[in-house]
Design goal:
Blueprint (H helix, E strand, L loop, with lengths): L1 E5 L6 H9 L13 E6 L4 H9 L3 E3 L2 E6 L14 H8 L3 E8 L10 H33 L3 H18 L11 H8 L9 E7 L7 H9 L6 E6 L1 H8 L3 H11 L5 H12 L2 E6 L4 E8 L4 H8 L1 H5 L1 E8 H7 L2 H6 L4 E3 L9 E7 L2
């Protein structure tokens, strides 16, 4: 699971990237560099489960963030550089950073304008891809009638109509078959979007006004968060004990970077299930509505191949009773088959035979 950090130049993308992944990267203006880093998905349930089992390993679910170069205005229709598109094409969602602090040129921030510029670039990029593909399909259909070509052409014309109305593709709802077909194009305006307002303390009082303006333009599968990038990076560089004390002094429950990670996780419609034991307590990532056998495959292909049943309990029940044995005595462990839809917070034990 990858999330691409994008935005106009000098909006603090790399600062936020450093805060998210705990990996300090110095800014390099004038260069198009791509940085990769992994962040744990904050989850208070996992350490509590580990207190019961005292495992050798405790493994969190993760999100990979990709910090790409600055988004240049006016390049969408012409096409982005190949390395820029390659980095973005591999991502499952985009986190668009907009500036809420005074620029180096002394100009005041205008995050709503930056949001609109970025959205326009995404639309132009996608429109350019669609127009080229439609033209090619029309030529192919003149040579040979192919039902699959007709299906693709009709779908792309539907997408083009929305883009021509200056609306992103994420406003549309597609069938599973259509989604599978579109996935290969890696349209930027189709990816789930998180808008991150990177504030300075001086402009903090304007955050609510900017949020209302940007929220009014967001579509489905879009979210908004405001944070102070420099402060978040400073917090991420503190030792854990110092970090907790610092947050307590600020009256903050958790760093805003944790909210960014969780929001990206939920934007992609992911949920977490757990496996527990003395060897390992682990949080696993799956898409919502994944079956028990699909969850088993996430753990190991052998578990899916030889799947017999899943023993399912709820994390909150296990934390309350502190023993799987007690859960079984109280009838709080269920036996489920292959088609059971795993729920967020399920604790699974897969029975299998090969």
């Amino acid at each position: 699971m990858q999330v691409g950090l994008v935005g106009l130049p000098r909006v603090g993308k790399t600062t936020i990237f450093s805060a998210l992944v705990g990996q300090r990267i110095e800014r390099s203006y004038g260069k198009r560099e791509t940085h990769y880093g992994v962040a744990k998905v904050p989850d208070t349930r996992l350490p509590k489960l580990s207190q019961i089992y005292n495992p050798k390993r405790e493994i969190y679910a993760t999100v990979e963030f990709v910090d790409v170069g600055g988004l240049e205005s006016g390049t969408g229709k012409k096409g982005y550089e190949e390395d820029f598109l390659k980095a973005l094409s591999q991502t499952n969602a985009l986190a668009l950073v907009v500036r809420g602090f005074e620029g180096e040129d002394g100009l005041p921030p205008n995050p709503v304008r930056e949001f609109n510029i970025a959205e326009e670039e995404f639309l132009l990029n996608d429109l350019g891809i669609i127009e080229k593909r439609i033209e090619k399909l029309q030529v192919q259909l003149k040579k040979m009638q192919n039902p699959q070509f007709n299906v693709e052409l009709k779908l792309l014309e539907k997408c083009k109509e929305v883009l021509d109305q200056n609306q992103p593709l994420r406003t549309l709802t597609f069938t599973n078959e259509e989604d599978k077909l579109l996935r290969g194009f890696q349209f930027l305006s189709y990816k789930p979007l998180l808008v991150i307002l990177n504030l300075s303390e001086f402009y903090f009082h304007q955050a609510e006004e900017w949020e209302k303006q940007i929220q009014s333009e967001l579509t489905i599968r879009s979210e908004f968060l405001a944070l102070q990038g420099e402060l978040e990076r400073e917090i991420s560089e503190l030792e854990e004990a110092d970090r907790d004390l610092f947050l307590e002094e600020l009256g903050i429950h958790e760093p805003a970077s944790h909210k960014v990670i969780r929001t990206c996780y939920h934007l992609l419609d992911y949920i977490t299930f757990f496996t527990v034991g003395e060897e390992e307590c682990r949080a696993w990532t799956i898409k919502r509505n994944t079956t028990a056998v699909g969850a088993a495959a996430t753990i190991h292909s052998d578990l899916a191949r030889g799947f017999i049943r899943a023993e399912v309990s709820r994390c909150e029940d296990l934390l309350q009773h502190q023993s799987m044995h007690l859960l079984k005595e109280k009838g709080l462990v269920r036996l489920e088959g292959k088609n059971y839809l795993v729920q967020d917070g399920d604790v699974l034990f897969i029975r299998f035979a090969i």
